[in-house]
Amino acid sequence: MTMRTLTIATRQSPLALWQANFIKAKLEQLYPSLSVELLEMVTKGDKILDTPLAKIGGKGLFVKELEQALYDKRADIAVHSLKDVPMVLPEGLMLGAYCERHAPTDAFVSNRFEHLDDLPTGAVLGTSSLRRECQLRQARPDLDIKSLRGNVGTRLGKLDAGEYDAIILATSGLERLGLHERIRHELDDDLSLPAVGQGALAIECRQDDEEIKSLLSPLNHPKTRLCVLAERAMNRALEGGCQVPIAGFAMIEDGVLTLRGRVGSVDGKTLLKAKQSLRLTGETQMDEPAAEQLGVDIAHELLSQGADDLLKQVYQNAH
């Protein structure tokens, strides 16, 4: 190893810093002679807090500045929540590692109610995600679902100020920030199927940086990698961004990879579902293309059910 210092580009939110420091500690543990520094940045997505993400370009707004730091060689890697990473990466950049997935579920957070089922008709429920919104509207069309932006602390502050009766956040983010006690319950994935990549961290790097790629290699978690490759292939084939009402979640049990996908209308009146499985060979070279093909197959099944028209409506409403 010739490298002495490695720089991680990260957003300044508490959760992003937790994630960057988590990867920093892993790398320092693996390579005791390596010094790891953080380059803290503010992204466009952090600055525009008064507009729903779908209207300002989706979650790619949280990674562009970090990617520019990689291009400029001010940073060697960028650490992201995988669910925030666009499905197609800029030329010359790649995801060098998919880390082991944390809790993939959505969490119900409320100061007054124990469970989503306990919310009375007309209760105000906050979420930043069209994916959650369409699934929750289908389950509870009687609720008043409102957009909720800002980092985890800001969102909890709005709940505590009484602006919402309950909010939905990613379980993994709350747990990473030591806020597990705020979770009243985790939503069943049959009610709210997670976002593509939810709960997993990904590390972005330059495609031509062989040393960095080799340093990151031990951080790859093979099962997580296969699952999220399938999920992201599905989203790509649907031509969906991160901020659209698409859900995709893959699991591996007993050597079988199962992927479920959903596309919904934001009003919750339509929710298309597809599910397919694949027996894995245990050979990485063979299983990765097969996992991605599974994602494409699920996308085609959803498109055959009319997903295309639903997504077009979302894009029209966003502009």
Automatic annotation (TrEMBL):
Residues 6-213 form the Porphobilinogen deaminase N-terminal domain. Binds 1 dipyrromethane group covalently. The modification S-(dipyrrolylmethanemethyl)cysteine is found at residue 242. CDD domains: PBP2_EcHMBS_like. Its EC number is 2.5.1.61. The keyword Transferase applies. It catalyses: 4 porphobilinogen + H2O = hydroxymethylbilane + 4 NH4(+). Transmembrane segments: none annotated. One of its GO terms (molecular function) is hydroxymethylbilane synthase activity. Signal peptide: none annotated. InterPro entries: HemC (IPR000860), Porphobilin_deaminase_cofac_BS (IPR022419), Porphobilin_deaminase_N (IPR022417), Porphobilinogen_deaminase_C (IPR022418), Porphobilinogen_deaminase_C_sf (IPR036803). The keyword Transferase applies. Pathway: Porphyrin-containing compound metabolism; protoporphyrin-IX biosynthesis; coproporphyrinogen-III from 5-aminolevulinate: step 2/4. One of its GO terms (biological process) is protoporphyrinogen IX biosynthetic process. Residues 226-303 form the Porphobilinogen deaminase C-terminal domain. Its cofactor is dipyrromethane. Keywords: Porphyrin biosynthesis, Transferase. HAMAP family: Porphobil_deam. Tetrapolymerization of the monopyrrole PBG into the hydroxymethylbilane pre-uroporphyrinogen in several discrete steps. PANTHER family: PORPHOBILINOGEN DEAMINASE (PTHR11557:SF0). Monomer. Belongs to the HMBS family. This is Porphobilinogen deaminase. It comes from Moraxella catarrhalis. The gene is hemC.
